[in-house]
């Protein structure tokens, strides 16, 4: 079981689409799939540079959780019949470059990237939780459970980054702001195309 001991398995490979707000659910699942895909590529880039360093096992641990998140969103894409964003090839390259580039600044740079990305993603998940609670918390109970668990995992990654000197990275505030602007743009685009 993932952290928190909550099973996140869907009851079946297909869910009833009757009565759901399909445009809202499509946007949520599409953007979350893209985000978890991008996170996987960021950690792949960081591991390519820092995999054999003292921080390698920590990055690997966070990456393993992101792999689980991506697997779940792959399943949700099928269950809810949602197409992926057409930007996946771009996020493939951009995520890896961001991960490797931040890691080239050293472990503090990699952790600064982690803090910036995970803060953006957990805030985004909180927004989605509010949306689904306003829609119908009972109807979207399963999806809410998944998003809440993943939000908590992202907050944990954020905190790990801070514990490993993210704020001591060169030009931390500039780096964090730039990465978070990129995350906002990626979220905006991935929800729509």
TrEMBL record:
Biological or metabolic pathway of the protein: Cofactor biosynthesis; ubiquinone biosynthesis
Keyword terms of this UniProt record: Iron, Membrane, Metal-binding, Monooxygenase, Oxidoreductase, Ubiquinone biosynthesis
GO CC annotations, alphabetized: mitochondrial inner membrane; nucleus
InterPro entries found in the cross-reference section: Ferritin-like_SF (IPR009078), Ubq_synth_Coq7 (IPR011566)
Keyword DNA repair carried by entry: no
Domain of life per record: Eukaryota
Pfam families: COQ7
SUPFAM superfamilies for the chain: Ferritin-like
GO molecular function: 3-demethoxyubiquinol 3-hydroxylase activity; metal ion binding
Gene Ontology BP annotations: determination of adult lifespan; regulation of gene expression; regulation of reactive oxygen species metabolic process; ubiquinone biosynthetic process
PANTHER family: 5-DEMETHOXYUBIQUINONE HYDROXYLASE, MITOCHONDRIAL, COENZYME Q10 BIOSYNTHESIS PROTEIN 7
HAMAP family for the chain: COQ7 (MF_01658)
Protein name stated in the entry: COQ7 protein
Organism for this UniProt entry: Haliaeetus albicilla (White-tailed sea-eagle)
Encoding gene, per UniProt annotation: Coq7
């Amino acid at each position: 079981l993932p952290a928190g001991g909550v099973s996140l398995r869907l009851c079946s490979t297909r869910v009833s689409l009757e009565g759901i707000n399909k445009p809202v659910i499509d946007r949520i699942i599409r953007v979350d799939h893209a985000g978890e895909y991008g996170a996987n590529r960021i950690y792949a880039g960081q591991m390519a540079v820092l995999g054999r360093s003292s921080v390698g096992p920590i990055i690997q641990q966070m990456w393993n959780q992101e792999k689980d998140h991506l697997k779940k969103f792959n399943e949700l894409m099928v269950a809810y019949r949602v197409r992926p964003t057409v930007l996946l090839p771009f996020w493939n390259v951009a995520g890896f470059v961001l991960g490797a580039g931040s890691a080239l600044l050293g472990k503090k740079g990699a952790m600064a990237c982690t803090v910036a990305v995970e803060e953006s993603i957990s805030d985004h998940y909180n927004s989605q939780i509010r949306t689904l609670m306003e829609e119908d918390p009972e109807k979207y109970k399963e999806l809410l459970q998944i998003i809440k668990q993943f939000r908590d995992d992202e907050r944990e990654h954020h905190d790990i980054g801070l514990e490993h000197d993210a704020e001591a990275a060169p030009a931390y505030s500039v780096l964090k702001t730039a990465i978070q602007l990129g995350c906002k743009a990626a979220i905006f685009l991935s929800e729509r195309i």
